[in-house]
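Posting for a labmate who doesn't have an account.
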Amino acid sequence: MRYLFAAAVCFGVLFPAVATTARQPNIVLIISDDQSWTDFGFMGHKVIKTPNLDRLAAESVVFPRGYVPTSLCRPSLASMVSGLYPHQHKITGNDPPRGTDRREMLRHIKRVPSLPRLLAKKGYLSHQSGKWWEGHYELGGFTHGMTTTGRHGGPGLKIGRKGLKPIFDFIDAAGEKPFFIWYAPFLPHTPHNPPARLLSKYKAEGKSIHVARYQAMCEWFDETCGELLGYLDKKKLSDDTLVVFVTDNGWIQKEKTRGSDSKSKRSPFEGGTRTPVMLRWPGKLKPASHNTLVSSIDLAPTILAAAGLEAAPAMQGINLLDVCAAGGKSSRDKIFGEIFEHDVVGIDNPVPGLLYRWCISGQWKLILPHRGSPVISRQRQSRYRDPIWDKPQLFNLGADPHEKNDLAAAEAGRVKALGSDIESWWKVEKP
């Protein structure tokens, strides 16, 4: 498919007119990269300072019990842009099978119902910056962007760490046309190299330098969010803009070394999958906080609804604007997720790389391993060395939000019931 703006890396071009019946809201999607659900001021962290996101939370409908279906960046981001589970869009890992050209994985982003492609039907311009694994930004339907090549996002990874001028230029050039901004900076993701002025705030005698660096990175990310939100204010666009916030996956910093705890990124646990979700739309959404279970697959249907578009038939998420209007009540009582190997095992078949499926119903969470007693692949033995939990685990998140007490043995009936729900959601053959 040809895009009229394929060569519009210079933002001074004129945009062709597209007839619309009414002014659609601008949409800004802010995506934190590798940050735990606990690590924000508005989520109760006592050390990390996030004043800009705290302000956003005060002006938003906040869903503290938000989740991503998978806790690895590439498949998680693909779910956000498509509204599909990883087993639907088939982008289940960061890298292709060893020896396979990574361009082989790009065919999936071309066929999914991506947000930029759908929003273009309403005359939206769209800008990609930051994390983007799917090759050139045009493959996802963006009219403008920064990533043209690279594993994580190539040139797009400069956003935030090197300022926000590309986004500001895009906003200025958009004029009266509605726009969609994908702001997914490489923050607070490693390398944890915060500015000295921020690191000095978190260093303390007896405190792990690794923790201090990570915490300073969280504040650095918050500062960039403040710059972006401030620019909307400066241009008098805030009242006409739906701002959506989410993280791609969690991160629990190790105390003594670099890297994350095994029960965070890439795991099925809360430290990997849970994220606050926020929606700010002045005059349309009244600030509130709801403990409703929501998922990042809900973002695409919500954004499309705000723009006056229907969700694509394959999307299984719900419109969170309806949940907001109902005071937090939702017709859905369960959410689901799936965890895969870091490297894709089958480019067109998600099942060989599947490690876990999980379900949350109310306060109860079941983690169901796919492989039972799995045979650890050579890849895992030689490269990743991640632990594999090979038995079902059940947690009461209301009493045990950090999943310290596995109740599966004592709640066999509940394990069976939730396991049946998982099979009804996505049935896969046992190995």
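Reply:
Got it, the structure tokens are right above this. The two ends are 39 Å apart (CA to CA).
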